[in-house]
Amino acid sequence: MEAFYRQQHPRLKQFVARRVVGQGEVEDVCQEIWRIFFNRFEVFRVDYDDPAQALYPIARCRIADFWKQRTGRREFLVAGEDLVELAQKVRLVVADEEACQLWDLQQALAALPARQREALSLRYLEDLSVRITATEMGVSENTVKKHLKDGLTALRALPSLTFYRSTAAVAQEVRK
């Protein structure tokens, strides 16, 4: 356990620091993550090839709880590794294995306004309904639908992603 902690703590601390403001808060959140993780360490060692696969989902939950306690609502921050996962879920192309396509989509997602990224993340990453997404974001269902529509429209309109659209979609756009 000690070796795992020494190996993962700097990475975990960086992960948390990108999402939580204040050195003291970062340390508190990390401590809570490690407490939860080490209570089930033996289970994680058996269930996962790499126990770190269990560490970061715990971290995401603790970070969400931190923001919920602080602001009264769940704060959903999308950055770094989360953009990779979101890019894989909101595919605009068939061949998702190609790194260039994934990179372009990550960059496009990073350029979206935070609320659109949040709506896309909750809807497609967390697989939440529009109603639950609205509750999590603290807005109406219509606002969530607007964020989703605007976000997907913005992604489809980006010149950097035009190359990945199907020829049928491009032909339909030309006909308009």
Description:
The chain is an all-alpha fold and 176 residues long. Helix content is 75%, strand content 0%. The chain has eleven helices and no strands. The chain has helices at 2-17, 23-39, 41-47, 52-71, 81-89, 99-111, 114-125, 130-137, 141-157, 159-162, 167-175. Helix 1 crosses helix 2, helix 2 packs across helix 4 (52-71) and helix 7 (114-125) crosses helix 8. Mean pLDDT is 75; it is low at 92-97.
CATH class of the largest domain, please? Answer: Mainly Alpha
Q: How many domains, as an integer?
A: 2
CATH topology assignment of the largest domain = Arc Repressor Mutant, subunit A
**Strand/helix succession:** HHHHHHHHHHH
Distance between the termini: 61 Å
Write down how many β-strands occur, each being a DSSP E stretch of 2 or more residues. 0
CATH superfamily of the largest domain: Winged helix-like DNA-binding domain superfamily/Winged helix DNA-binding domain
Count of alpha and pi helical runs? 11
- Gyration radius, rounded: 19 Å
Strand content: under 5%
Determine the fraction of residues in helical runs and give it as a percent range: over 70%
| Overall geometry | globular
What's the average pLDDT? Answer: 75
